[in-house]
Amino acid sequence: MAPLLEVQDLVIGFPQAEIVHGIDFHIDPGETLALVGESGCGKSITALGLIRLLPQGAAIRRGRVLFEGMDLATASPRQMRDIRGKRISLILQEPMTALNPVLTIGRQIAEVLRRHEPISAAAAERRVVELLDLVGIVEPQRRYHDFPHNFSGGMRQRVMIAMAVACNPRLVIADEPTTALDVTIQAQVLDLLDGLRRQLGMAVLLITHDLGVVAQWADRVTVMYAGRIAEQAPVGAFFAAPRHPYARGLLGASVGHEEEAHYTTRRLAEIPGSVASAAGLPGCPFETRCPEAIPACGIRPPALEPVAAGHRVACVVEAARTGANHAAAHG
Amino acid sequence: MDGSTSAAPAPAAITTPLRPAVRGRMVRAALRNPSLMIGVLILLAVIVVAILAPLLFPGDPQDMVADPTLWPGEDPQYPLGTDSLGRDVAAGLAYGARVSLLMGLAAAVIGLVIGIAVGATGGFFGGWVDNVLVRLTELFQTVPTFLLVIVIVAIGEPSAPVIAWAIGLAAWPGVARLVRAQFRSLRETDFVMAARALGYSAPRIILREIMPSALAPIIVATSVLMANAILTEAGLSFLNMGDPNLMSWGSMIGDGRALLRTEWYLTALPGAAIAITVLSLNLVGDGLNDVLNPRSGQA
Predict the structure, then answer these.
(1) Does A125 lie at the interface with B, CB-CB under 8 angstroms?
(2) What gap in Å lies between CA B206 and CA B129, rounded to an integer?
(3) What is the pLDDT of residue A250?
(4) Fewer CB near the last or first residue (10 Å), C or N of chain B?
(5) What are the angstrom distances between the C-alpha of B210 and each of A103, A109, B193, B195?
(6) Nearest Cβ partner of B209 from A97, A100, A149?
(7) Bridge partners for A173 per DSSP
């Protein structure tokens, strides 16, 4: 199956610094790919780079973003405008501020439809009521005329989702869509997004730093660290046996729901140091914090090597270990 | 959605759209706002007088109709007296209201259109476009407003359209700075980011996403702009640089100046007319500021 979106060697930088150092990944049609990593690792910039909405000053320096036979990294602004909201849509983190406070939500959703589809005002209004119903807003006809301040946070995120899926996009980029919501609402919103993904056959790029969210809602996971991809794996394999030391550290640092693993009975593992310590190093960005670092780690950034089907890791130590296992199995 | 409304099980009272209710809240807030209501009433009175001037005072207000310098009340036919040429002061005030309001409105519209265009463009796009427009704005602001108007009128001719353009051209930098500040903060908001992510073009984002939020201060500024335009026009006429074919409050004051010690009513009456009109516009501006502020009515 051809991937829906393929990112090849994407480099994004500000004038002073490079933030994303050449990353490769793909998204298959209809799947949920989780992009995880700590704050500042470049996951949001990557996502914004895909639809070319980088903050002022930032720019794609190299690489390709192939989507439906087009390279989004070099597409014209007009082509990008036609793609945004129609083929690829974005759900922002903060539903409190992502809706225009002075327009009714019905009008805002209708505007998306009318921007991308030749549809009459009356037909758009009917579609909006259907969409509001689809995302689980009660009494959609009445709520059509409400302003964003009449909605709770979870409801607003539902409205955002309705806007995002209004034109049946192939890909929805959700940038930490539930960070601003409380946990019970988080599950509802993600379930809704997942249901719509199945129903409408779209792919979701889920950006998060919550591994619980990844385990429950993603098909595959891509771990980013300091602007590079550390590990890429199907969710099952990742949680069963993470290969990159950073990924192992992340999982060790998360709180399980099992009784005996509770933080009151067990000290939470942590990764020593901070991301900032990676700046300016020639080798693996994780070297200074890595418990398994060897001298070879400091030479150059490790390449993303396959270690199993659909499972790739950027780690010298891990690649050597896999190679040795292979050699042992075949020898 | 009209068809589907009846299908909903909710009672009719709930299915009615909220929008009229929101409008109703605005209207109620406006009615409760004393400064807005007083301002609107005075302004309406001035407007009515201006509209009815040809009916109330048929004939040219520049005609000499009676003995000169009749005091108010001296001759019941001319309740506000006559000036040094024997012209009816009441007729002059009524026709002057037309000139003042029209000039104020025209100049405000010109200033608004230029100011909004420049401010929105610069504030939204930023970068070198903004730099150029800010420098242009500052260039206009370094010249004192009144002096700029006098220069433009002196270069052109003292006709009503030229004066309106001159006042508008001198007034736009203030609007541009206001609008630019609004756009600069609003373009960073998430909903503008969301609008970009939905594939909207820049003009669409400017006009449909940002403008509604920026509108309240612009409306308030308009009333002040109009008040200032009326003052500027009066000042021009006072200096004999107004349209000589129009009876204006400013020119009445200018004509009465020579008789200030004896016939002071000749300057006091048009002066009061200017003061009341400008005051009413400022009251309307203040009141609208309260009513349009979305946070004022939700407590």
Answers:
(1) yes
(2) 15
(3) 84
(4) C
(5) 10, 16, 11, 10
(6) A100
(7) A90, A205
Asked if B15 reaches chain A (Cβ–Cβ under 8 Å), the answer is yes
What secondary structure letter does DSSP report for B63? S
Q: What is the pLDDT of residues B244-286, one digit of tens each?
A: 888 889 888 888 888 888 888 888 999 999 999 999 999 998 8
Q: For residue B122, give Cα distances in angstroms to A57, A102, B115.
A: 17, 22, 11
* A94–B198 C-beta distance less than 8 A: no
Q: Which helix (H) or strand (E) holds A313?
A: strand A311-313
Least confident span in A139-143, A255-259, B161-165, B283-287: A255-259
**Spatial strand order in the sheet of A18-27:** A18-27, A5-13, A59-67, A70-71
Name the residue among B176, B207, B22, B198 with its Cα closest to residue B111.
B176
Report yes or no for ipTM above 0.85: no
Of B19, B198, B201, nearest to A163 by CB-CB distance is B198
- Whether residue B190 is predicted with pLDDT greater than 70 in this model: the reply is yes
Mind listing the domains of chain A with CATH numbers? 5-218 (3.40.50.300), 246-257+269-331 (no CATH)
pTM of the model: 0.78
How many whole angstroms separate alpha carbon A54 and alpha carbon A35?
17
User: What is the Cα A273 distance to its own chain's centre?
Assistant: 25
Taking only the tens place, the pLDDT of each residue in B151-189 is: 999 998 888 889 999 999 999 999 999 999 999 989 888
Rounded CA separation A110/B266 (Å): 60
Reduced to 3 states (helix: H, G, I; strand: E, B; else coil), residue A231 is: strand
SS3 B209: helix
The number of CA neighbours under 13 Å toward the Cβ of A92 is 20
- Specify the CATH number of the domain B96-292: 1.10.3720.10
Q: Which residue in chain B has the smallest CA separation from A98?
A: B191
